[in-house]
Write a structure and sequence with these properties.
This protein is an alpha+beta fold. The chain contains three helices and six strands. 30% of the residues lie in helices and 36% in strands. β5 and β6 form a beta hairpin. The chain is globular and about 60 Å long.
């Protein structure tokens, strides 16, 4: 499930969360954006043009979360920060920043983790 890393110019892939207008259930869509950069000289601001947007995959939210939960445990440890977890979700799973908070909450619940200071995550000891 890991995706290509985003570039400033070129192909960018990520998962975005949407709500189905028919059934009102959440879903994740893998989108691919093709960006082109144009700049007159190195000192001026660059202009970005979106050349193409393509939906590559659509997954029900429950299935997507289950897939992430099955593979993310190897990256987790006691005391991991929520910021680090969001970085992992973006880097290895291609999840858009706007979706990270909801997914962190699901990970906390499903993997029996808690956050006493709202910054670090710890596993509940059995």
């Amino acid at each position: 499930m890991p995706l290509l890393r985003a570039k400033i110019s070129g192909l960018i892939q990520m998962y975005v969360k949407t709500i189905c207008p028919v059934c009102r259930n959440p879903a994740f869509h893998q989108i691919a954006l093709l960006l082109e950069t144009s700049s007159q000289d190195p000192d001026s601001a660059a202009k970005y043009a979106m050349e193409n947007i393509e939906v590559r995959e659509s997954v029900a939210a429950e299935d997507f979360v289950r897939d992430v939960l099955c593979t993310i445990r190897e990256y987790l440890h006691d005391g991991i920060t929520t910021r680090e977890l969001c970085r992992i979700l973006k880097k290895y799973y291609g999840i858009a920043t706007s979706c990270c908070c909801d997914l962190v909450q699901r990970i906390k619940i499903e993997l029996d983790m808690y956050s006493p200071d709202r910054r670090h995550l710890y596993f509940v000891s059995p």
